[in-house]
Specification:
Layout: E1 3-5, H1 6-16, H2 31-50, E2 62-64, H3 65-79, H4 89-107
Antiparallel strand pairs: 1-2
Helix pairs in contact: 1-2, 1-3, 2-3, 3-4
Length: 121
């Protein structure tokens, strides 16, 4: 199963809100920005884990690829005010809704058991 590192999640969230452009300091945020983004990502991961939306340890360094994009979209609106990014607010809020839908789909238990028999009348 493909995974991403926690730093990749942080950097992708910062890129999503426009703080990182991929050109400055080889795509790495300043230490202050990194700390603020890491803290927000951790808080959101712990919240989602507590609500049952994540099936992996929120303290883990590895993030499953199937959750990555949904998490980026979900976390980005939570951090945009701290970075003064309000011109993209409507887009980010729509993406948060889409990210939440994807997380809800991943949360749903997959059907396991015997095959259902159809009843014909």
């Amino acid at each position: 199963m493909a995974t991403y590192k926690r730093a990749e999640l942080r950097n992708e969230v910062l890129a999503e809100i426009g703080v990182l452009d991929g050109q400055s300091t080889q795509g790495n945020p300043s230490p202050e920005d990194a700390k603020k983004a890491d803290d927000t990502c951790q808080q959101e991961l712990e919240y989602l884990f507590g609500e049952g939306y994540l099936n992996f340890d929120p303290d883990s360094e590895e993030i499953p690829a199937s959750y990555f994009r949904a998490l980026v979209w979900y976390i980005a609106p939570s951090i945009m005010v701290a970075f003064g990014v309000m011109n993209r607010a409507s887009v980010l809020n729509l993406q948060k809704q889409e990210g939440f839908k994807r997380l809800a789909a991943l949360k749903e238990a997959r059907y396991v058991g015997t095959t259902q028999q159809a009843e014909y009348f």
